[in-house]
Amino acid sequence: MKLAVIGSGIMGRGIAQVCITSGYETILVDIDDDALDKARTEIEQRLHREVEKQRMSQNEAASAFELLEFSSSITSAVWETSFVIECVPENLELKQSILSMIEKTKPQIIATNTSSISIDRLSEGLEDPSVLIGMHFFNPAPVMKLVEIVIGTRTSDDVIEKTQQLALQFKKEPIMVKDFPGFASSRLGVSLGLEAIRMVEQGVATPSDIDKAMTFGYRHPMGPLELTDYIGLDTRLKIAEYLNSTGISPSFDIPDLLKEMVNEGKLGRKTGEGFYKWEGGKRQ
User: What is the pTM of this model?
Assistant: First the structure.
């Protein structure tokens, strides 16, 4: 089976790495050639680090990279594949447009790496919504074990089974979730992140101490504010706005501080400043 990953941003390139290191021929697609070049370089560097850390041999790394192709055309790339993973930004209209383009090439399964948008909403423009399923990876995708499989009301049983099997082939731990706003992981994670931001806003404690409360007190691998920086404050805000609009819980009311920081361009790791300072992708 040949796979396609649509979108070569942080998540897309990470998922592409997961695909090739699991032995699958994979096409990474992006309309931006510069983004593809950046993805190519980063994936090569990550594989090199795996060799340095003795997690794989030089031959294994080289063989994995040989499985990866790059394309700037969705239609021509996806014609060759049966399983497509869409990883474009978390925007309903953009995702619906891309998913419609993908469907025209008749893949057997279309998985969307959405962290919060309803699968049924995303499938509204599709001729056959039974092929669409949520496959929510976590950042960084090559490291994080969880894959949240989100089942739409019209997703077929065959698509569910094959997606679960692929997640297991990726050596991930899949969980099955119904199509409900925020699913399981985002509903919990965003709620915690927003509450941590409110605590900074109220002067309860410093970002570092709030994060330590969760890393040392609850054994989280990363505190909610560092995680917000890592994924991007703008991404956190978009997801929070969507969840807030559903009215499912007052915990998704958006702190003014989050809006202010996004407006000021303090987006976290990607801009070098958020709740922490960042340099070279590392927290200072």
Answer: 0.85
